[in-house]
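Usage

Read records sequentially. Each one opens with the input sequence:
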Amino acid sequence: MTTRQEAIRSAALVLAQARAERDALSPREAAEAAWYPGHRLETVEAIETLIIQQRQAAEEAWRNGTHPLSPRQLPNAA
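and closes with the structure output:
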């Protein structure tokens, strides 16, 4: 029987793999994969723009140490 901790770890690994695959895509490829008829942003170009903005913001947060996974934000960071 799978323990709760094992289930959480397994789900985290699946999520990490999916994010790694998504993040390996170009902004255009990611936008094309995300688009569907009726999407609130309406066009692939609008989604692509949002992805570019989000990636730039994440990179900036990493550089200035405010990203949640930045070593400066983790409780056990040296």
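Summary fields computed downstream for this record:
- The chain has a mean pLDDT of 90.
- The chain is about 65% helix and 0% strand.
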